[in-house]
Specification:
single chain, mainly alpha, three-stranded antiparallel beta sheet, 4 helices, 38% helix
């Protein structure tokens, strides 16, 4: 499903750092600068990547925008046991239906984005 989210390479790397640092249940206590540095992103690149992850609802911020606290969406968070996972997924589905939790969103296109056109290689004559 991640390919449908149209994430940049920087956003994928930042998401990986968040996943590595999370506590069971998806809480991440780290600054954006720490997370970005972990994967070699500049402050601006980390900021842009985090904004994209938040816009897709993969990363949720507390309403008070508490510094250094992020939450991974329950659908992508890890859990300590299979039972906790099942309970969290059921709870998340109920909260999404009630409008209390956003769904993970993919960009909507009126038409499909263009596919990259590969240019065939051709020989070039050497100068001289």
């Amino acid at each position: 499903m991640l390919y449908r989210l149209d994430l940049t390479k920087a956003a994928m790397e930042l998401l990986s750092a968040l996943i590595e640092r999370q506590e069971p249940g998806g809480e991440v206590n780290a600054s954006q600068a720490e997370l970005g540095a972990r994967v070699g992103l500049s402050r601006n690149s980390a900021n842009t990547a985090m904004a994209l992850l938040e816009s897709r609802n993969l990363v949720l911020r507390p309403k008070d925008r508490k510094y250094r606290t992020y939450y991974l969406h329950p659908y992508v968070a890890s859990y300590a046991s299979q039972e906790e996972l099942e309970e969290a997924i059921e709870d998340a589905a109920e909260r999404i239906e009630a409008g209390e939790l956003p769904e993970i969103t993919a960009p909507l296109y009126e038409t499909a984005p263009p596919k990259r056109q590969s240019q065939p290689l051709r020989a070039v004559r050497a100068a001289g």
